[in-house]
Specification:
single chain; 755 residues; 6-stranded mixed β-sheet; elongated
């Protein structure tokens, strides 16, 4: 910073540049008469920029951002399609004044649209996607910058009178020959390249207003006392900053105001046709999305111009579908902060609270991330793989509930399970959650599973699977009643931490009960609604290691249990189809007629959607129906999963036939390839085990449709805890009278070394 005409700041700067050529160097000067005269004899090309310093500290931030933008723009455009605003101005005093205002508004804009992000990490990435600012001080520099980044240019703001080329030495002075219409020439050239790009003229010469407006350029008067306001208006109205304002093309009156992406999605079909035509024909939608760092949708829409597709309704469909696809992509694999305004049927996984997600919650987030990173899971045209819509009440919600209701003294006492349950049911959950739960109901439109997700649950070394409760809440038209049932279910899950069996298990595993924290997973139940009941066509449990392979099966190929209805049937040890996903045609239960009749599923579980009330019990299956397979046949829920026993011919035929007992064989999906379930089970098992670096168990459920399409939902993943124990006893030396049981034949996955 030169302080007067005689100091050696320029010599110091030259010395620094000579040794460190890549270090940016900036001159800050108050522009006194002496400094101005001195600068006329200096080669300022060694400096990156010269600024007029009048004590405005915001200028320092603007200088840093300007240099950052210049250094980062190539990488940011290549990696993230970041946009650029080109400012063409040679007046040091003017750009020193306007740049802080420009950056202040850009940063404020980025902070505003960052609030739309799903979590703090995504918000940071959105803020980094703010438009870059590039400063050019002559025509040659401006045209070079524009040509290099024209595909990512958000708009151009240009002075009118400036040099065509950099300053040159003439008669001992560095001079630049200014062209009085350089800015107009530049903008005309740019307009030939891009008919939609917003171009703005800023000038201190008032006669330039007519010239600018005659050619369709916007105009900002440098002499105006409200120039910063005028510039902000240009950014909002024409470069996509702020809200998107749909206008009447004739009167320019506001028709509709859109604040964010979800609002655009919700209202795209409500916008008047003539207003929609006005904006899409000028590429306003793509520019607004670009300014908000929503680059995938912006790039996609930018290529669909009115010249190529002159159909307003089709444009609406394309915009809507692009937003839906983008939101699904962004939601998948991300643990979002729950926002009732944005959680809809396209949302995915969110949390309420700042504590831990617990074991099941972490497992679901892990599965969601696997699905996002491995698109091969969704490679089949007739099948989708996803997790159900999920909201997790984090462990800090549990802490607040326990402390505000003073439940610890009673919960840790010797009270019975029923007494503990009733005490928890009488306690109060925060009313703040009511609107959140209602938004979740509207998004899922299905029964809700209220599942425990404790800190210790599904851990790698000491899993607590099955220790705590899971309740099912039917979907009701009466949302107040559904809220009451949900609140009771959450409190009942909390109570299950302190049941006698839970306390005993904690003691047996050397854990301390009052250190256990409980998160609660609210999860859309997979299935279909039938007459008073709700259940999926297929439930299953995949284990990536098979301890008892049969025939040509291998241990590392895993094993699967499949059943009709809720997975409770498998968990409780009911009859199910057992197979290796790599050998789907080798089903032991179907190998012989009498085996198929005796050892296949005869009943299944479903949610009783007519059971309404607050009569919650310690038994979390109090509103679960146990039904015979005939009931599923009446519901027409056995397509592709059943075979028919023909008593006349004494054979089992694949598919549904009149008369005869229905056998749950899953022949349609296992042997006939109606639905690619074997391949999906293989992939899920492989990817889950590889990601967790150990054998895993995965619960899933499927809905099958009559048109042979279906959805596979991954519900939970947990590690299989393996313990390798060496028995050093010489078993042959133990006398018979010292044994409870002795055999020379045993099943297992171990090895016997005889010395």
């Amino acid at each position: 910073m030169p302080g007067n005409a005689d100091n050696d700041a320029f010599d110091v700067a030259r010395a620094i540049k000579a040794r460190f050529a890549t270090i940016p160097c900036v001159v800050l000067t108050p522009f006194s008469h002496g400094i101005t005269r001195r600068m006329e004899h200096e080669d300022l090309s060694i400096f990156d920029y010269v600024f007029c310093w009048l004590g405005n500290t915001n200028l320092i931030l603007s200088i840093i951002k300007l240099i950052e933008d210049r250094l980062n723009i190539d990488n940011d455009i290549r990696e993230g399609s970041v946009q650029m605003i080109l400012l063409v101005e040679d007046s040091i005093r003017f750009y020193s004044s306007i740049l802080p205002n420009l950056y202040n508004y850009i940063l404020m804009q980025s902070q505003n649209f960052a609030t739309e992000a799903l979590n703090p990490h995504a918000a940071t990435l959105r803020m980094r996607g703010r438009p870059k600012v590039m400063l050019a001080r002559n025509y040659e520099e401006a045209w070079t910058i524009y040509n290099r980044y024209k595909d990512n240019c958000l708009g151009v703001i240009s002075d009118v009178r400036f040099p065509l080329a950099p300053p040159h030495l003439q008669g001992g002075f560095y001079t630049d020959d200014k062209d009085p219409e350089a800015g107009l020439k530049l903008l005309r050239a740019i307009r030939k390249e891009d008919e939609y790009l917003p171009l703005t003229v800023e000038s201190a010469e008032s006669h330039n207003r007519e010239k600018a407006e005659a050619e369709g350029f916007w105009f900002v008067d440098k002499n105006s006392k409200k120039i910063s306001v005028d510039l902000r208006h240009i950014l909002e109205e024409h470069m996509g900053f702020g809200d998107f304002i749909f206008r009447d093309p004739k009167t320019k009156a506001e028709v509709m105001r859109i604040h964010d992406l979800k609002e655009l999605q919700d209202n795209i079909f409500k916008i008047p046709r003539d207003s929609m035509l006005y904006h899409i024909s000028r590429n306003h939608m793509s520019r607004w999305l670009s300014a908000r760092a929503i680059f995938p949708v912006a790039e996609f829409l930018r290529n669909i111009t009115w010249h190529e597709l002159q159909d307003v309704d089709l444009h609406r469909e394309i915009i809507f579908n692009a937003i839906v696809q983008y939101r699904r992509m962004k939601n998948q694999g991300v643990v979002a902060l729950f926002d009732r305004k944005r959680f809809d049927r396209y949302a995915h996984f969110a949390r309420i609270g700042d504590g831990s997600l617990g074991g099941k919650g972490r497992g679901l987030a892990f599965l969601d991330n696997i699905i996002k990173r491995h698109p091969e899971l969704n490679q089949y045209a007739n099948a989708t793989v996803q997790i159900p819509k999920t909201v997790v009440l984090c462990t800090d919600v549990f802490d607040e509930f326990m402390e505000k209701n003073d439940l610890y003294p009673f919960a840790l006492s010797d009270a019975t399970d029923e007494e503990i349950l009733q005490a928890f049911l009488r306690a109060q959950l925060p009313d703040d959650f009511i609107d959140d739960f209602l938004a979740f109901f509207a998004a899922t439109n299905a029964p809700i599973a209220v599942r425990s997700s404790s800190l210790l649950e599904d851990s790698h070394y000491q899993p607590f699977a099955g220790v705590y409760a899971t309740y099912m809440i039917p979907f009701l038209e009466d949302k107040k009643e559904m809220l009451r049932m949900l609140a009771c279910a959450i409190k009942a899950v909390y109570a299950s931490v302190f049941y006698r069996d839970s306390k005993a298990y904690m003691l047996a595993t050397s854990n301390v009960i009052d250190q256990e924290k409980m998160a609660v997973v609210l999860q859309q139940v997979v299935g279909k609604q039938y007459d008073g009941r709700f259940y999926p066509n297929i439930s299953g449990v995949i284990r990536s290691i098979n301890y008892y392979p049969v025939g040509n099966e291998k241990a590392e190929e895993g094993v699967v249990s499949l059943a009709l209805g809720l997975g409770k049937h498998i968990v409780e040890g009911g009859q199910s189809i057992r197979l290796s996903p790599y050998h789907p045609k080798n089903v032991m239960q179907m190998s012989e007629l009498h085996t198929a009749l005796r050892q296949t599923q005869a009943d299944f579980y479903a949610i009783d959607t007519r059971h309404i009330g607050e009569d919650f019990k310690v038994d979390d299956g109090f509103n679960i129906l146990k039904l015979g397979v005939r009931e599923a046949e009446k519901d027409h829920a056995l397509h592709f999963i059943a075979s028919t026993y023909d008593p006349q011919d004494n054979v089992i035929r694949d598919g549904l036939w009149e008369g005869g007992r229905k056998i749950i064989s899953f022949a349609g999906v296992l042997q006939q390839g109606v639905f690619p379930l074997p391949k999906l089970m293989q992939l899920s098992m492989q990817l889950g085990a590889d990601a967790m670096k150990r054998p895993v168990e995965i619960e899933f459920a499927c809905n099958l449709n009559a048109d042979r399409t279906g959805e596979m939902y991954l519900l939970q993943i947990r590690p299989i805890v393996e313990e390798n124990q060496a028995v050093v006893e010489n078993l042959s030396q133990i006398a018979d009278d010292q044994c409870l049981l002795r055999t020379d034949m045993a099943l297992g996955h171990g090895g016997l070394l005889v010395e």
